[in-house]
Amino acid sequence: MEAPKTSKARLVASGIVPFVVLAAMIAYVLGPGSALVNFGTALPEITLERIDFVDKEIQVTVRNTGPIDVSIAQADVNDRIQPAAIEPDKHLGRFETASVRIPFEWNEAEPYEIGLTLDDGTRFAKSVEAAAHAMKPNFEMASYFALIGTYVGIIPVMIGLLWLPFIAKMGQGKYAFFLALTAGLLLFLGIDAIAEGLEISAQGLAESFNGPLLIATVVVASFVGLYCVSEKLVGRTGASISKSVAIALMVSVGIGLHNLGEGLAVGAAMGLGEVALSTFLIIGFAIHNTTEGFAIAAPMARHKPMIGKLAAMGFIAGAPAIAGVYIGGFTYSPVAAILFLSVGAGAIFQVAASILGWISQDKKGLVSAHTASGIAIGMIIMYVTSILV
Amino acid sequence: MVSVLAVTVVVATFYFVYPGVSDAKNEEKVFVTHGGAVIGTTGDILDPVYSKQTVEFDPQKYLRNFNYGHVSTENGKTLREFTIIASDDQVMEISPGVFYNVWAFNGTVPGPTIRATEGDIVRVKFINNGSKSHTIHFHGIHTASMDGVFEPVGARGGQFTYEFEAGPVGIHPYHCHVMPLEEHISRGLYGAYIVDPKDGRPPADEMIMVLNGFDTDFDMENNFYAANTIPFYYQHHPIQIGRDQLIRVYVVNILEFDQINNFHLHGNLYNYYPTGTSNVPSTYTDMITLSQGERGIMEFLYTYPGKYLFHAHKTEFAEKGWTGLFLVV
Questions:
Q1: pLDDT tens-digit profile of A155-194?
Q2: CATH code for position B300
Q3: Is there a contact between B299 and B271 (Cβ–Cβ < 8 Å)?
Q4: CA nearest A74 in B: which residue?
Q5: For chain A, what percentages of helix, strand and coil (3-state, to nearest 5) are there?
């Protein structure tokens, strides 16, 4: 018994040793060795992440996104100095946030630039295209958002499910075509989510977050995570009925995450006062999302209709849009939006991979004309409907 | 393994989405807006506009501080000797909580106000303790060799003695004249130089206002404007003056980057003497416009007590600090 115990201790120790050495090196660099590595000047940076217009007050959420601690010295509106309060305090460590309250009688629908000046005199600013009252999370708004989420998510997905009988009566080749079409739709959605994430990253996220790499990390992590989970889910159920249900379920979950991202976009557009844009977003997403219902219906079309399950999946796919609208409208943060979009993209790629895997089990596999044209047409349909957004 | 992954993901998410915020204080502080709204906060107040705050430099002291130099007689004339030391490594709090690397004469921006009587000999011993070449270029009448342009005074201890007869009567700026000129002036190497007439001016409560600004983010636009450096200082520390007391303000516009500046007085008008060279005012007004380097003398008296604003009627400057108050008692 003695020998294995020692070897296990050794194993643990050998795992820890590199950490100890690394810690020693960091301690040296920060301490006695710091003179060796100090060169150049670290420049402070803050990011104004969010601006809310409330009654006679403008509220700014600011984050220290630079390499050094900073103090905020003053606030301005349209480059004119204004008295303000900062909570919890004006000193911000790295990545710390604070809320700046500027008493100001702002005008509805007019553009503003809000600036904050640091202790070294550097000014950072963020523009708002049109000031609009920040939405307060009350019952009225919550039910309004639920309604919009329903329009964007649940109803279009349910409409898409109505294609089920149409797909069910199809021959094997055509069915493969429609499955491939679904894969095409999903590929498009995944790429769309990444593009959206990159856009938010470029506009609203400080460079220190390494936005594109954050997106890549989360996309890959959610892809492999869900791939692992779904393989277990599908593998456990031997019968092909359950397998198709499992795939449809994964499609629903993936699309649900995607719709959460879309809901965020709608809610954020409303929160930022871009009202006309959000109307277009709602119509656009509704049309766009009808195709998603189709994506759920396709894998289940070969078996006798299971209305209850289908409806449940439609709900899983559509309902997150409500949550998305809610989060986007009330507590929009670029970091959260990017995380949701990236998880959604990973999930969707995983589902697309599963469907393609499923098709490839057929005789002709992925090389058939049906499959190739299905993927291409799926992407084209999504592109055309996406122009509406 | 799955649990390790889950923990990693959760920790990473919270690290970005909900970073730690520093300890909240419970003590409630209050500030009042121009509209009279009383704003309470548990955090810090950022109010350079109305809240009474002080920095190391005291504009109240600078306002009436005239430097007549070390006085002696030489060849039957009054000799006034001054020492001015230039530096360019000083960090000055130029607005509450804002620290800026100023280049300064005798450690302050503006530099000391030098004052002499027409015909006096002014001798200025100049020492450059900065890391760059600097000079002093006085406006006024003097020989070419005393102009402070073609004799850059070397860094780290370079010396030069400027000597000339004080004249003409009036108010003049002095500033460094080393290239790049805009940088050497806007960083703070300037001050005022007053030449009094031999028979003096009528007694008055006299003050100096150097209209200046700071480009703290180096985008060739001023972030702060003021009379005597500190934005809004005379708004929360009003200049107390007496009723029916003649007030004489020596005004110098040394602002860089902006083409013009101006001076508007509330509830009153003033006699204005451009450059202070004539006994006859050019205008009786409440509003003068000053180009870069322009200066003059304003004389007025208040009959009614109370608070009266003075500020740039270029209101952008006013809202970035060039606003003050006279308190007539």
A1: 887 888 887 778 777 777 777 787 788 788 878 878 887 8
A2: 2.60.40.420
A3: yes
A4: B46
A5: 65, 15, 20
Counting residues of chain A whose pLDDT is more than 70, the rounded percentage is 84
Q: Tens of pLDDT along B97-137?
A: 999 999 999 999 999 999 999 999 999 999 999 999 999 99
Candidates 3.90.228.20, 1.20.1050.10, 3.30.9.10, 2.60.40.10; CATH matching A46-128: 2.60.40.10
B176 assigned to some structural domain: yes
| Both tokens assigned to A53 | 């217009």
Token digits of residue A314:
């439609």
Cα separation of B282 and B277, whole Å? 11
Contact A121 B319 (CB under 8 A): no
Strand partners, A34: none
How far B318 CA sits from the closest chain A CA (Å)?
A: 9
Residues of B in contact with A117 (CB under 8 A): 98, 216, 223
Contact A274, A143 (CB under 8 A): no
Q: Quote the pLDDT of residue A236.
A: 59
Contact of A351 with A251, CB cutoff 8 Å: yes
| Closest-CA residue of chain B to A229 | B2
Domain assignment of residue B66, yes or no? yes
Q: Flag the least confident range among A132-136, B138-142, B266-270.
A: A132-136
Residues of B in contact with A339 (CB under 8 A): 13, 16-17
- B94 contacts in chain A (CB < 8 Å): 121
Please report the pLDDT score of residue A78 as a whole number.
95
Q: Output the DSSP codes for B11-22.
A: HHHHHHHS---P
% pLDDT > 90, chain A: 17
- The answer to whether position B209 is within a domain reads yes
Q: What is the pLDDT of residue A122?
A: 95
Cβ distance of A73 and B42 shorter than 8 Å: no
How does the average pLDDT of chain A come out, rounded? 80
Residue that wins the pLDDT comparison between B33 and B241: B241
Q: Which structure tokens are listed for B239?
A: 């200049």
Q: What is the mean pLDDT of residues A310-326?
A: 82
Strands A112-118 and B247-253: unpaired
Please tell me the distance from the alpha carbon of residue A194 to that of residue A335, in angstroms, as a whole number: 14
- Domain containing residue B68: 59-328
CA B329 – CA B325 distance, rounded (Å):
13
- Residue B108: DSSP 8-state: B
Chain A hits for B232, Cβ within 8 Å: 81
In a domain, B63, yes or no: yes
Per the CB < 8 A criterion, the answer to whether B49 and A82 are in contact is yes
- Look at residues B106, B57, B107 and name the one whose alpha carbon lies nearest to residue B82: B106
Q: Which chain B residue is nearest to residue A333, measuring alpha carbons?
A: B17
